[in-house]
Amino acid sequence: MNLQTEYLITTDKSQMNPDDIHHWLAKESHWAKGMPRELFQTAFDNSFAVGAMKDGRQIGYAKLVTDYATFAYLGDVYVLQSHRGRGLAHIMMEELMSQPWVKDIRRLMLSTKDAHSIYAKFGFSPLRFPDRIMEILRHHSYENPDYTP
To answer: Which residue has the higher pLDDT, 2 or 125?
Structure first.
């Protein structure tokens, strides 16, 4: 199987299918279940993204929320269950991390529940100084406002 001929990996948002992405995030993800379509669209429009496409259908996605100079946050990474195990997440990460401007970013961050080993291959590690990092966590479960991770 040649992934390059079977799948299109692209950073061109005009080739992506936002409806497919929103559907997966709002219905399947554990972090954005129930996300309103308008909220998703704002996030999509204001992020740098990579998508995996097959026959015009969105089967994978990842985004960087960034200022393109000093900081980026990796989020919303997924591959449809039926396409997992083929290295598509790795290829999407390679595409993101190979962008010339990404190589100069001072801090890249992410939050992951269970994919630490995937991201470690790209240089991500636990916080070096966790006592210096603070957050305001307004976790929104759009279906259940009382949910906490």
So the answer is: 125
Q: Nearest to residue 11, comparing CAs of 107, 121, 102?
A: 102
On whether the CB atoms of residues 102 and 64 are closer than 8 A, the answer is: yes
Of 44, 53, 55, which Cα lies nearest the Cα of 22?
44
* pLDDT greater at residue 148 or residue 86: 86
Nearest in space to 52 (alpha carbons), one of 23, 90, 100: 90
Strands 8-10 vs 48-54: parallel, antiparallel or unpaired: antiparallel
Q: Which residue has the higher pLDDT, 9 or 143?
A: 9
- Kindly give, in sequence order, each residue whose CB lies less than 8 Å from that of residue 103, ignoring residues fewer than 6 positions away: 97
Phi-psi region of 34 (alpha: psi -120 to 50; beta: other; left: phi over 0): left
